[in-house]
Amino acid sequence: MKKSIGIAVFASSVVFAGIATGQGMLLDFAADKVIQKYATATCDQLKQQKDELKSDKEKEAIEFLRNDDQARQAFLTKVAAPVANKLFECGMIP
Fold first, then answer.
1. Over the chain, what is the mean pLDDT?
2. Strand locations in 26-84, DSSP E?
3. What is the spatial distance between Cα 42 and Cα 73, in angstroms, rounded to a whole number?
4. pLDDT, tens digit, 9 for 90 and up, residues 26-54
5. Is residue 72 in a domain?
6. Cys staple from 58: which of 11, 72, 92, 93, with CB 3.0 to 4.6 Å?
7. How many distinct structural domains can be found in the chain?
8. Has residue 46 been placed in a domain?
9. What is the C-alpha end-to-end distance of the chain, expressed in Å?
10. Residue 81 to residue 31: CA distance in whole angstroms
11. Do the beta carbons of residue 65 and residue 14 sit within 8 Å?
12. What pTM value is reported for the model?
């Protein structure tokens, strides 16, 4: 299964957020895309995507969030509850 467009948009948005002046807006956009991905994906799709390798853009986005405490906090504050709820429903977390 190919990575969804949402993942690519998320990764690109987070990477660009580090250099753009509208960082908050881009982080919100990226967070909304991640939330949408989890809301619309089936449990089987999520389980399959979990084992897929990350793209270079995703790796850059993750590295950006690791290095920018404020961006990471803003992103996680927005996506934590919806993503955790979906993973719980799918039996992917206890």
1. 80
2. none
3. 27
4. 788 888 989 999 999 999 999 998 888 88
5. yes
6. 11
7. 1
8. yes
9. 26
10. 12
11. yes
12. 0.68
